[in-house]
Fold these 2 entries.
Entry 1:
Amino acid sequence: MKVTHFIRAAAMAGLLFTLAAGCTTTDFVTGQPVQNMYSLAEEVQLGGQFYKELVSGLQKENAPIDQDPARVALVREVTAHITAVAHITNLPYHATFVGDPDFVNAYALPGGNIMVFEGIWNPKEGLVRTVDELAAVIGHEIAHVNCRHSTEAMTRQMLPNLLLAGGMIWATLEDKDDLQLLFGGLMLVHNGLIVTRYSRADELEADRIGMMYMAKAGYNPEAAPRVWERLAGASDSQLAKALSIFSTHPRDKKRAQELRKHLPEAMALYQAAPIKRDGARLLSTLPPSTTPAKPKSDKPKAD
Ligand SMILES: [Zn+2]
């Protein structure tokens, strides 16, 4: 190995290790050390930027945003009750209601923005039917925010890719074709397998933590497994097709089983909650939707 190459490789390794070490922080939910290259303040800023872009995209499609007072109020009320008992209470949480009855979905953006689409309680194919079930979905999204899943996933993809890219550069400098191939292969394995496996683990964590949040906030947590059981039973229906976001998630039946395992713990939190909400209320009892009818379009489903 030439001395200049060695110095370059050593400098790069040093830089990458410093970068990795500088990312270590404590997970708010588990209390365990975790890698995250974003501070909470940076995460809020990043999420705010995503939110602006998402809203301007929706506005271009004439999607009604926050225009249905009864539903906007309900989504905000549930969000406020759940965020009050979450691990990170000082985030600028904000819930947005999008009156798109065809889009069965909800999102959490890093830093505290929650988006709920009207299709989530569409009476024909909707995923949720009661306030408790809506709280299960919102609890899941708020759990993603508290677990900081988005920025942890971004960090997880960034660091090994930087290390492997460093390895590839070194192998190129050293004319080691076989090592170059090896590092390239490892990058593919990392991105294909490890990242996917973690995203499934993140979903199960958000399911479990979200169920604890809803219970602490006074919503009956029995609604959480029920939502996933409904989805599992709808494997070939329009509902399952509409829920493109869940296609990469763990199998719905498995999610419901995992939730049932943790249900006794959640029920104990619910029994101890100082206020019990009127969560059995059917969403079909809300005043009629004020969402204007929109022309049908074939817009692709986001995920
Ligand atoms: Zn999720």
Entry 2:
Amino acid sequence: MTDPHLWWYVTRISAMLAWIVMTIAVLWGIVLSTRIFRGADNPAWLQDLHRFLGGTAVVLTILHAVSLMLDPWLSLTPLEALVPFVGDFKPLPVALGIVSFYVLVAVQSSSLLKDRLPRRVWRGIHLSSYVAVLAVAFHAGAAGTDRGTWWYQAVATVLITATVLAAIVRLIMAGRRSGERPAPSHPIDPRTRTRMRVVALDDIADGVRRIRLAPADGSSIEPWEAGAHITVVLPDGVERQYSLCSDPADRDHLDIAVRRVEPAGHGSAWIHSTLAPGDELEVVGPRCTFPLRPAHRYLFIAGGIGITPLKAMIAAVPPQRDWRLVYVGRSRASMPFADELERTHPGRVRVVARDEREGRLPLTEILADDAEVYACGPTGLLDELERLVPADRLHLERFVAVDRSSGRPSTPFAVRLARSQRILRVPADESMLHALQRSGVAVPTSCGTGVCGTCETRVVAGVPDHRDSVMSDADKDEIGVVYPCVSRASSAELVLDL
Ligand code: FES
């Protein structure tokens, strides 16, 4: 460590590596934004790699700055290394290097805080990385002491060319997007109503119609998770929830499939007999209460129209993952997407149509391995799965609420509103939602039966008595939510984030 050359070598190596890694991080970010790897294994892993590259560039840049300070021949002071225009050596190129470092730190921090930052802020900070990497090129070209060597010039040429090409690709992509969609990106807030236009209607099975919806203002749809549903507001104000069955990667439209319910179900009858292409609908969401968690092996079990959220999951599941679909229904003609799924995924899809095959579905045999089970369909099928599959690997979406209060008398309890510390009493014969609304507390609501998830409220303290059918109780407790339209409290007091 006393060798005066040591820090000189560290300075040069760390600078070059930081520049290379930073450029790769920027290129990787562009590749991610094109989504060409969308089908590759685990998109979260790809994002992690991007963050890792950014973090490595920050660490190498810090090492570069520290080694400059430790190099006995340069002996930079911390002020000279960290504050632009303090030192005498090539003030502008050095200042550009210092500013680029701060931009790099901001980009990396915004990556880590992505979920908490407004998307516009995150995007703005991220775009500044292009400027930073070009500024680094200028810094290295003007202040780098190896700049006269052939190898330095070769590496610099590759990095600068790659950066310029990346910036051009990014500009072309931005131009193409704005050309396709003149309006700004459409923010989908789970509790905000948006107008969507019916762009296509198809009868895709006996009694099942697919409705393709696109934002009426021509904007694009923000990312949504497979398993999500939307709430459609009918012209008379009645709301109906429908699972999305399109590919979450399609940002131009959302698809739902609606089975006509006999005797005439309120929403389905209107959709089948009145709704026409070009009509506009009020839509809330998408909202996801049936998320697809990472797993090595999936078993999807669909009953009839319950195929809808599972079809979106199949589109989203990384291709390297092991998955199977067992799809049961009355008759093949009444089962939407059955032929398409069999054709697209040979060997993975088993269609069990009762008009083609006699006898009961051999569920015990189907459930023999340790796959994570995702199921949606009629109550009887889901109840049977609840008896056969351990709760920790069973994920259900129910269309019809289950009565979970049987045998459990309702008792009074108190709700404390965490933000105002107000305390409300919920009598035994009143729902928590009603007690909140009676006291003037606004909680969004839709189904009122504990299936749609609209009234989701965060629990700050206390023990909920979950009586809804939205997701597993373990999942609700893990993320700390309660659905007050039907759920109550097991503790004397429940503190809600209201
Ligand atoms: S309003 Fe639908 S779950 Fe509460």
